[in-house]
Amino acid sequence: xxxxxxxxxxxxxxxxxxxxxxxxxxxxxxxxxxxxxxxxxxxxxxxxxxxxxxxxxxxxxxxxxxxxxxxxxxxxxxxxxxxxxxxxxxxxxxxxxxxxxxxxxxxxxxxxxxxxxxxxxxxxxxxxxxxxxxxxxxxxxxxxxxxxxxxxxxxxxxxxxxxxxxxxxxxxxxxxxxxxxxxxxxxxxxxxxxxxxxxxxxxxxxxxxxxxxxxxxxxxxxxxxxxxxxxxxxxxxxxxxxxxxxxxxxxxxxxxxxxxxxx
Length: 263
Ligand code: ADP
Ligand code: MG
Known about the structure:
Elements: E1 5-8, H1 17-30, E2 35-39, H2 45-49, H3 61-66, E3 76-77, E4 83-86, H4 92-98, H5 108-116, E5 122-126, H6 133-141, E6 144-150, H7 159-172, E7 178-185, H8 192-205, H9 219-226, H10 239-262
Parallel strand pairs: 1-5, 1-6, 2-4, 2-5, 6-7
Antiparallel strand pairs: 3-4
Helix pairs in contact: 1-10, 5-6
Bound molecules: adenosine-5'-diphosphate and magnesium ion.
């Protein structure tokens, strides 16, 4: 399977899902790839991080999922070249209830995405820290999943639950879904537990862990306020920028390897 739709998921909050979604999307768009970023967190962190107005109640992932508008009408420009966004709104909380009785409710996003897939090289889905019907829709619609994992003691919490969920999805709803990679985030070189967790993950999950890891860098916190993603700051000495740049190269390398294997 050559991945086009990639979910960034982990049901734990604050592990770097949104940061990874935004920096990967913006970085790949800067390299000329046509990117769609779908924000499926009702807290709309991606939408906010990119400085997109939250006025689009009828142009949002909520509107698309509940059928208020065709999904192609829910796409808004990000203001950055090659990058479109389907924003989120707090209404998305309601979708969890509104979709309970929908038929084939796990496949709603997957079916809708078919229409717009040809427009993009990659579609990233920033998932919320939960596993309700909206995130399940995101995973079912995806070809692969990137799992950001915080290099902290409690980072491992919930990891097994997510892997079990992926297994259930693979056996029942989405056999082709695979783990693109586990991304170690907020790595602190000076903390022994950070190094220990990284080593443990590499022993346990081997090739499934990206070679690239993201160090802890205060620039990420500044970028939330400035609404300029670290990857787009042009600060070439930024360790955060360098790390996401390396991640993009590793992602593209894996992608091209899959393409060559297919050919
Ligand atoms: P999630 O989407 O998983 O909840 P976020 O990407 O929003 O996580 O990150 C949570 C917080 O941590 C944000 O304030 C973000 O700016 C910060 N952050 C993310 N990655 C890093 C990092 N590598 N170093 C320092 N802070 C980070
Ligand atoms: Mg988030």
